[in-house]
Amino acid sequence: MKSKKLLLILFFLFLLSACQIFLGPDPDDSPEAILKNLWDDFDKIHAYLDIRMSHNQRFANWHDVYHNKDIGYAQRVFPGISESSLFNLCALMLRELNDPHVGLFAPGKFASSYTEAREDFSLDRVRFNLNDGGNNNYRNFLYGTFISDPSIGYIYITSFVAENFEPEHWDWGKAITNIVNALSDTDALILDIRNNRGGDFFIMEYIASHFVSVPSDYLMSRIKNAPGHNEFYPPRIHTIRPGGIRYTKNIVLLTNKGTVSAAEWFTMALRTQNHITHVGTATCGAFSVRINRPMINGWYYSISSERVTDMDGQIYEGTGVSPGKDFIFEYGNDDNQLMEALNLAIELGIPKT
């Protein structure tokens, strides 16, 4: 009997050791390891480390962010650091990238990597210039004509967000057909995406297709496929095509620094069209798809894992897509951007003789 018990004990000990062999040791969830693993993940996955760090005034590169012997983040973590302080330390490290698509999430907490540029934009000021204050019957749209010149149409798009995967949260973009129909008699159009925070790329392309006259390749995207900083899959070419009922008279596309992500893809797509003039100020400069990844302690983070260029290979990450120098419109107390866009739209809407 004793020998059987001994055999059972030895058998369970063998199983435990086998688990260690095949599964490996328990992961290190110490504060030092959590911070280091977070840094490692970004070192291997983030698609724009070189560009994001080129704007950093404290560190020369991402390696120094962690390893610098004087101010690197490895010097700031210690055993016994509180969970709240560790979260703040991780958030500060990610803030060195200043990337709108990077964030840190814990139960009841969120920290963005991005120090947002303030934009002087007011939809109430826009409504003040539209007949009857504009029409906002459709979700995420404000549209109408101008009091001072009803021949000029106006559409504001709040975002391209799909709140979830339910059909009703994807279908809101279909209202663009009714809006284009309502403005079909105007001579020109202002398409305003200032402070549009982006969203779903399928909704974005669907809406954009209603302002396109000819199919055009508008950008290339490459997903990270290996740990090296310059290791990506071959580029995928994105093409915008005409769709549905369209508005293809002269259009003035208005952007600012609050024009982000999918709204920047929208900008690049419409800039391929000869009847569209891009005005305002440069977009934000955040082009990657955002992906979420878990951490060993139950937190998770979002990261930019896709490198985007125009069809000539130019990267706009961190700087944004800027209108031509003759179409950069600065702000004023009464929204000079909108007034300058209106004047240009009036000029473009005058029939050529």
Explained architecture:
This protein is of the alpha/beta class. The protein has ten helices and twelve strands. The strands form three sheets. It has a five-stranded mixed β-sheet with strand order 3-4-5-8-9, sandwiched between helices. It has a four-stranded antiparallel β-sheet with strand order 2-1-11-10, covered by helices on one side. It has a three-stranded antiparallel β-sheet with strand order 7-6-12, covered by helices on one side. α7 links the parallel β4 and β5. α2 (31-45) packs parallel to α5 (83-95). It has two domains: 31-112, no CATH class; 123-285 and 320-349, 2-enoyl-CoA Hydratase, Chain A, domain 1 (Alpha-Beta Complex), CATH 3.90.226.10. Helices cover 30% and strands 17% of the residues.
Write the layout of secondary structure elements.
Layout: H1 2-23, H2 31-45, H3 49-54, H4 62-67, H5 83-95, E1 103-106, E2 109-112, H6 123-128, E3 141-145, E4 152-157, H7 176-182, E5 188-192, H8 201-208, E6 216-223, E7 236-240, E8 251-255, H9 262-270, E9 276-280, E10 290-294, E11 300-304, E12 306-309, H10 336-349
Parallel strand pairs: 4-5, 5-8, 8-9
Antiparallel strand pairs: 1-2, 1-11, 3-4, 6-7, 6-12, 10-11
The CATH class of the largest domain is Alpha Beta
Q: Tell me, briefly, the overall form.
A: elongated
Query: Low-confidence runs (pLDDT<50, min 5 residues)?
Result: 6-23
Integer count of domains: 2
Largest sheet: 5 strands, mixed
